[in-house]
Write a structure and sequence with these properties.
Structural class: mainly alpha
Radius of gyration: 15 Å
Strand content: under 5%
Largest sheet: none
Shape: elongated
Number of strands: 0
Number of helices: 2
Length: 80
Amino acid sequence: MDRHNEIPGATPPADISGMKIKGVTTRSRLYEYEYRNTLKAIYKYLSGKPSRRMAPFTLAWALKLHKEMFGDVWAWAGKI
């Protein structure tokens, strides 16, 4: 485990099955990757007023949003 990137008291990620990024050994590192990925969706949907066409708030759209937010990190992103 890489202790140089660990926040004191942080525990390692519990379940890393489906993680696309290799070498993540701490929650703090995992949160960094998730944060970067989530920023893309934030800029896309909150940089202006979202339209009903862009963000219809349906189940299909919510799954698409989840994939946009976590798809670079997790293989299961956007799936039920």
